[in-house]
Amino acid sequence: MIRGLVIFVLLCCSSLLSAAPWPSWLGDDLKPQKGSHWQIETTAEGVEFMPARSAPTILMVVSRKADSYDTALKTLLAIYARELPQAHIVVRLLPVEAASVNSARLISMLKKAESNVDLIYSIGSKATVALRRVYSGGKIPVVSVNAKDPVLLGLIENELGSGDNFAFTSLNLPAPITLRYMKRFKPSLKQIGVLYAKSNQSAYATQYLPLKKTAEQQGIKITAVVVEQNDPSLTLEVSMKRAIKELKEDDPSLTNSILWLTGSSSLLVRMQEINFHAGELAVLSAVPDVVNSGPDSALMSFGVSFVNNAHQAGLYGLQILSGRTAPGDLPVGQISPPDIAISFAQAQRINQKIPFVLMEMASDVYGSQGTVIRSQGESMQEQQ
Amino acid sequence: MRAAKDRIRLILGISVVTFSLLLVLVVGYGQALKSYGQLTTDTVMAQTEAARLGIEQILNSGVHLDDIAGLNQVLQPIVDSDPSVTGLRLLSAGKQIYLFGETSEFDSSISIPLKNKFTQVGTLQLVLSDQLVETMVSERFQPALWLIVILLAVFIACVLKSTRRSVYLSCFTAVFLAMSVSVMILVGSLYRDGLQSKALSLADVVSQRLAPILIHHVDPDYVFGIEVMLDNFRQTNPDLAEIAVFNNGNIVAASRQGSALVEGLSSSGMLDYSIATSLSGEVRLSYKAEIVLAQLLRTLKNFAVLFFACGLVCFAFIRLLSGETKRHHNEQVLERIKPLFLGAVLMESLMAPIMPQFMSSAAQSVGLDAGASSIFFSIYFLSFALTLLPAARLIEVYDIRRVLICGILLSSLGCAVLIFDWGLTSILFARLISGMGQALIFITVQGYILRFSDQSNKTQAAGIIVFCFNAGFIAGVAIGALLADYLGDQGTFALAAVIGMLMSLLSFALPSMQAAKKRVDAVGRHVVEMAFDSWRLIKIPAFLRTMLLVGIPTKMALTGIVVFAVPLLLAERGISKEIIGQVLMSYAAVVLLVSHKAGPWVDKLGSSKKALSLGNLLAGLALVVLAYSVLMVQSWQMITLMSLSMMALGFAHGLINAPVVTHVVVNTADRVDSDSVVAATYRFLERIGHVSGAVIVAHLLLWFGAQKAMLMLAAFFIFASVLFTVFDKQALKEVYL
């Protein structure tokens, strides 16, 4: 009796010891709660989310730790829990060594996957570019999530589709749509200052250049506001003062101008300084999170939310798994109308009017006192 | 004896007045049901739109429908918006996530798709109970039943006091008007209630869209374009004249810029509503007066039409009802013939506004096209025509009253058979016996008129037929069209059958006349005789000319254009049955008016040729107008031009109808002994136009389209008019014959 009890306790302890800890590159929010559709298995390589019935198997390759990737994963998990509850989701980190993708390990991971995986999601631009390079024309269909525009990244030639085993979604709002919404915001728009970090080549290639080309075709002047903190002539303060001076030459009151903040991470965290230097110039951004209830918020954003992007990737994946569509036939998934966020505190600060039509379309609206008026499209309760 | 007569007179009078007042009530009730029902639907749909906007705003930000919290708060206002909402449920991928009411109710629900940025993710299903709306309207109309009793008491008191026609007519008018005004007030008050509910829902939609300002206190000075939204909102709700939003008593925005609106809304007090939508928010909106006026005018127009129709019926009965005695027995018989023939025609024409569509549907239900429906449509006219010959002989060998009763009963049976859905064969059988019955009625009525009139008032006596036919047609199409929506097709057929039964009872008031000849011959022999008469008359050039250039084309225009093509063309454009009925009525009203004047004029001058030539020319011009009416883009333009065209055609037929019989009788007097034979043979042969009208016109419409077909027919009538004028040389002689 005692011997049996000892063996049982030892078995329990050994199983506990054999489980790897939750990986540091995933957020804690992803851990399934009690009653969740998912159960997980953590190993040294990563985490496995397993439903009671598991087929098909979906491999998700994450570029690195990022809140946005957690959001994408969370959305995809919710979609599959609802639409394909028997799916077995395997999450892996993109093999990286010395800041570069280890192609050999990635190829090995993909070869191994070919025996039991039905679909791959590449989460993030880095993972998408890496998979595209080593697995274009491969056996398993691949869908990109949370990645920039594949055409602008040079991964495919046009937006009609890859023609092979890749289906892409895009976090970039196409430049003509971006410009259309800018003009809806300011019908008299004549100039746009585009703020980007010199080191962020992706922002330059996928946001600055397309916007410049489209805007200039429509007679709108683009002023580059390039920031490189290590270069004294290109610090945020210097570049912005120079740009605003240039903008004021043609538009002294800046009523026909805006400042467009690209998705350069190093700049997104410096909203306080950007607002300070911008003065009464309206600051708009392509990144929804830059607009928030705090004082250091952009006035407005119109871009693609991580949730909606992942939602579209989820629908693409379901279409491919159902056999209805070949991945190469799917056009680059772009969200329209864009996800809009507005801060009325900023509108009040710079005495800027907001078009009603954009306010009605906005999924996130913050009041003049920083109150949340609408969050994820849902209106808050009446405030007394 | 006298007391019994008075009692019958009183009962008849009460019946006619009760029928008229009930018609007002039913038409008003139908109108109220329609308008209040529409407003109720608008109210609920506006509230549903507000909920859809709210839900889709959340869905667009990526939240799944199942994950939306507080759905009850969004959906409950739909349930609260009107008691007629008996079911509401929200489906997400087939799964029910919100339910109000019974699941079984959702078989006939309104479905509103809910979409996110990519696809439809759910459905909002709504069940509206027509029965509850009906109950609500019925409750409001209950006092009107008591009003009928009171008005009847007033009417009886007046009629018992005096037997004068003027008193009778005045009393009828007063009672009818009192009822009409009361029902109009009822309809108006229900409409106003409906408008108020709709205003509340519309205010909710606007308030929801402006929630950041009205609820979350965003300064409206930092938002622009609200006026544009309000203006668009106003345009998508055509009933609205103005809409303005206020916060803490200050104007936020208005659908029309400037202070005039605010002043207008605050000072006019006309159809404006002020609705508090939150602690500080307020939506003020104002309806267009013309929309409400149009609604009331429509009711007024319908009542006016009804008054005219009931007035005609009452007028036909007046001599019977008022108790005024006539000196001559012959005139008494003619007076009794009037209401009877009018009632018989009314029975058939009650179905006129619905019959072309009913026959088309019957043909389509067995996979046949419009051409086939026109042939079915013609069966009535064919059996009518084929019965004329034997009928003319029947009244000479049998008791004319018995023949009349048989005709009325056959026609009533034809209407009664249509009540039951027994398939195409039974419909064709019903139309066949209706045609036979109406032909028997027509010939017996003509027989009575010919027997009880003399040479001095022959055309005027023939005018009785024209008057009663058109008055019956007017009353029938007007009442039938107004009741069609409320009673439905089957209800209309049933009403026609009941009227037929009443007319068969009334026919006992006519004298029974024994057979003029012994009934030894078979009907076949009479047919041979009629064929012989026809052959003899056809050989007379004046008869043939009149027949081919005037008689047949006129009847062809009546059945092919007025009765068949016009209702179909209007129905194809989605024009309501009541308007179709009123367009047809405009034709008959002018025929009646012109026939009334044309008869004495022709009798006096003997110039029937001029009347017939002019009639044909006018018919051609009327068809040119009709051809252009179908090109009109706006419905009201089409209705106006068609009404004008029908009036012109009515004028033309008014000039032709009575004089044409006189024309052939006079022109053949030296070659044929009996006027009755000429008239009967003519009436029989002109039925070729009756029979072929719908078939010819339907095929012309199919082959050439509406406009070309009408222009071709117009060209024919103008050409016929010229030929008739040039070749008919006996016209001047008629005066002296």
What does it look like?
The complex is a heterodimer of chains A (384) and B (737). With 384 residues, chain A is α/β, with parallel strands linked by helices. Chain A has helices spanning 2-18, 67-83, 103-113, 125-135, 175-185, 201-217, 236-250, 265-268, 271-278, 306-322, 344-349, 356-361, and strands at 39-42, 46-50, 57-62, 88-93, 96-97, 100-101, 119-123, 142-145, 166-167, 191-197, 221-227, 257-261, 282-285, 300-303, 339-343, 354-355, 364-366, 372-375, 378-379. Chain A has 2 domains: 21-171 and 306-322, Response regulator (Rossmann fold); 175-303 and 337-379, Response regulator (Rossmann fold, 3-Layer(aba) Sandwich). In chain A, a hairpin with a 3-residue loop joins strand 1 and strand 2 (46-50). Chain A is globular and about 65 Å long. Chain A starts with a helix and ends in a 5-residue tail after the last strand. Chain B has a domain at 326-736: Growth Hormone, Chain: A (Up-down Bundle). Chain B has 20 helices and 9 strands. In chain B, the strands form 2 sheets. Chain B has a 4-stranded antiparallel beta sheet, covered by helices on one side. The interface between A and B is large, with 41 and 35 residues. Strand 16 of chain A pairs parallel with strand 5 of chain B, so a sheet runs across the interface.
Question: What would the keywords be for this entry?
Answer:
heterodimer, A: about 375 residues, alpha/beta, Rossmann fold, 9-stranded mixed sheet, 12 helices, globular, B: about 725 residues, alpha+beta, Growth Hormone, Chain: A, 4-stranded antiparallel sheet, 9 strands, about 10% strand, elongated, disordered C terminus
CATH topology of the domain at 326-736 in chain B: Growth Hormone, Chain: A
CATH architecture of the domain at 326-736 in chain B: Up-down Bundle
Please mark out the parts of chain B with pLDDT under 50 across 5 or more consecutive residues, or reply none. Answer: 257-267, 730-737
- Quick one: biggest sheet of chain B? 4 strands, antiparallel
- Would you state the CATH class of the domain at 326-736 in chain B? Mainly Alpha
| Helix proportion range of chain B | over 70%
Instruction: Give me the count of strands of chain B.
Output: 9
C-alpha geometry of chain A:
globular
Strand content of chain B: 5-15%
The N- to C-terminal Cα distance of chain A equals 67 Å
Would you tell me the overall average pLDDT of chain B?
A: 80
Mean pLDDT of chain A: 87
